[in-house]
Amino acid sequence: MRARSRTNITTSPESRQPCVDNPLRVSCGVLSASDVGKTVELDGWVHRRRDHGGLIFIDVRDRSGITQVTFDPSKGETFALAETLRGEDVVSVRGTVRRRPAGTENVKLATGEVEVPADGLEILNRSETPPFVIAAEEEPAEEVRLRYRYLDLRRPRMQRNLTVRHKIVKAIRDYFDEHGFLEIETPNLIKSTPEGARDYLVPSRVHRGSFYALPQSPQILKQILMIGGLGRYMQIARCFRDEDPRADRQPEFTQVDVEMTFVRQDDVLEVMEGSMRYVWRSALGLEIPSSLPRLTYAEAMRRYGSDKPDLRFELELLDVADLFRGGAFGLFADLAESDANRVIALRWPGGSSLSRRDFDAVTELAKTFGAKGLAYISLAPDGIKGSIARFVDEPLAAALRERTGAQDGDAILFVGDAARGASEVAGRLRLEIGERLGLRKPDAFAFCWVLGFPLFERDEESGEITFSHHPFTAPAPGQEALFDSDPLAITAQHYDLVLNGYELGSGSIRNHQAEFQRKVFKRLGLTDEQIDDRFGFFMEALTYGAPPHGGMALGIDRIVMLACGETSIRDVIAFPKNQMARDVMMDAPSGVPDQALKDLGLQILSIPPKPAE
RNA sequence: GGCGUUGUAGCUCAGUUGGUUAGAGCGCCGCCCUGUCACGGCGGAGGUCGUGGGUUCGAGCCCCAUCAACGUCGCCA
User: Fold this and answer.
1) Is the peptide bond before A442 cis (omega within 30 degrees of 0)?
2) CB of A325 closer than 8 Å to CB of A342
3) 20 to 30 Å CA-CA from A83: which of A111, A234, A327, A560?
4) What whole-number distance in Å separates Cα of residue A236 and Cα of residue A182?
5) CA-CA distance, A336 to A342, in Å (whole number)?
6) Is A322's pLDDT higher than 70?
7) 10 Å Cβ neighbour count for A129?
8) Residues 6+ apart with CB under 8 A from A325
9) Residue A612 vs residues A45, A62, A156, A609: alpha-carbon distances, Å
């Protein structure tokens, strides 16, 4: 079982209103003692049956819940029919609501005070024996769940998650509507603009040899909406990126996409964090702080070893290079000689109870994070132990205790390396410690902003300068002068919203002057010809009085995942792709008839041999 | 593409150091049962242990390869 959010979201009754032509029909989760005496019709699935031979209980289920129906042998034909019922059969039951006999109420059930003795039963459809039991506590393998998604979706957990998703999306729409935003749709068949992620391409039949691309995001289109004078735009937008899926991302995903004219960075932050505050309050019934913490990118890396820090717990990365300078431990003493390195200490509360084997395992883990090794000391009651204990004399031990706040019973991990690598390794170890100590609670929500990213970074493979966000991001005011002298030192007007260690999304103030935008493209190594070929329409638009503008996009799937206490976005998407980007229910992607390829002017060069299974 | 974990009945899993006929719970089928709600009782069916190869007198277990799912790195403007 996954951990649950503390939000008490329940799936809403489908409707309390009877059908127009069937005034008796009620949902399965709504009946209570006040309905006693009413004649009703319950339509739903057979959730469970308890056949006592002379008396049959059937739990009838729909999205709203469960009502117990009883079948008595005195109703001959109805009873005989009830004996044939099996799980997931679809039934329509008529009867008059009655109070359950004293002592047989079920407090675990919302409708547990009452039951419906069946006067009539209609079997609307039979079900094959399902491959897994919807009512079971055990969760089938995800592969099975996705193959039979229509059955998986009947499980209360998925119904709850999709309900939360609906409420969150509705809250987002309400919020932006109240703040003067227009929801505007943008096309899904657009022009491929290289750079960034791999595009999904759609071949054109009418224009053989040409392709549309599915949008990686509506970025350029929303900027053009701003140039079009729409002022405030939002969209629940589907985005497509042909990259390998993970637990928190898949090839198609949904963003709340926002853009505004005549705004500065703080205006965007205020609107966006307001939207999250509104969502948490109205969809989840929870309050989040009135102003969210803000960290610079440099600070986030220094203190948490990540540009998306999990602030549900402290355990910060602490610099201790100075304490090792000139000391007995040569490796750290050497590292301490340069500011380009870091020696980071991580306190592990209670860590001295770990065995040598445990520390070895953590060391192995650190190596998978890219560490060359891991040093540690354990502050055991009977003295300091651990891999570098023999280099830690009393004064150093005292200084380390002072710096880290470590006490007897704790351990301290040390990561020493070039600053960037050391920070990242220590940051991941921090998450591991937090995880093991149970500090990453699924029902805690710690938002923060990360600001002050560099505008450019150096691509490690090619050595070329590339953008760190996207090429439309504006530099911080007054930093244009660094463009030629020291581009990597330029700070961007770019911001990330982070929740519990996940990047919910990012945004920026955009370049709104064509001349400057061209300068950025050129700095990224594009020629005038390339700029005009790929972005000509956009460059032209910028020349016709483009207003200053900026915005942001947040990942709905991740927001809902965290709100639901889930660890995979696939559990909050009705029909997700698996890790190989396949839809295993539909069996997509799949081949197409030769004629379809012919129409498109396409020819398949080779198909990899089909795996023998 | 790399690394890790997993793969045994429809589902969830156990299976000792390599040793006779591979087990459990749920589900399924049959019979019994009038107050259950994970109903209960009795009986039964259901497995080429992912696939291929190897080591061995003997492989669910060891080795190699491969496929798949999940996680992760690369990748994700």
Assistant:
1) no
2) no
3) A111
4) 11
5) 7
6) yes
7) 8
8) A333, A336, A337
9) 39, 42, 37, 9
When pLDDT is cut at 50, 70 and 90, the band that residue A17 belongs to is low
CA distances from residue A177 to A183, A195, A233, A258, A389 in whole angstroms, order as listed: 8, 33, 10, 12, 61
Please answer whether residues A186 and A218 qualify as being in contact, where contact means their C-beta atoms are separated by less than 8 angstroms.
yes
- Say yes or no: Cβ of A53 under 7 A from any atom of strand B: yes
What positions of strand B are covered by protein, i.e. any atom < 7 Å from a CB? 1, 3, 10-13, 25-29, 32-40, 50-51, 66-77
The pLDDT value recorded for residue A215 is 96
Chain A residues 368-427 with Cβ under 7 Å of strand B are 368
Percent of chain A at pLDDT > 90 equals 87
Compute CA A146 distance to the chain's CA centroid, rounded to the nearest angstrom.
Answer: 18
Which residues fall within 8 angstroms of residue A329, CB to CB, at 6 or more apart?
A375, A388, A391, A392
Q: How far is the CA of A338 from the C1' of B76 (A)?
A: 33
Q: Which nucleotide is nearest to A215 (CA to C1')?
A: B77
Q: What is the pLDDT of residue A15?
A: 54
**Structure confidence by residue, pLDDT tens digits, A221-246:** 999 999 999 999 999 999 999 999 99
Looking up tokens 């991941």, which residue turns up? A428
Q: Which of residues 277-336 of A touch strand B (CB under 7 A)?
A: none
For A6-42, b/e burial (b = at least 16 CB within 10 A) is ebebebebbeeeeeeeeeebbbbbbbeeebeeeebbb
Closest Cα to residue A131, out of A120, A117, A116, A146? A146
pLDDT tens for A405-455 read: 999 999 999 999 999 999 999 999 999 999 999 999 999 999 999 999 999
* pLDDT > 70: percent of chain A: 95
Q: Measuring from the CA of residue A103 to each C1', which nucleotide is nearest? A: B35
Query: Quick one: residue A326, left, alpha or beta (phi over 0 = left, psi -120 to 50 = alpha)?
Result: left
Which residue's entry shows tokens 């003493």? A333
Q: Which residue is nearest to nucleotide B7 (CA to C1')?
A: A141
- Going by pLDDT thresholds of 50, 70 and 90, the confidence category of residue A248 is very high
Q: Smallest Cα–Cα separation from A441: which of A277, A346, A565, A349?
A: A565
pTM, two decimal places: 0.95
- The CA–C1' separation of A158 and B68, in angstroms, is 25
Residue A117, classed as helix, strand or coil, is strand
Q: Give the pair of three-digit tokens for residue A264.
A: 């500065």
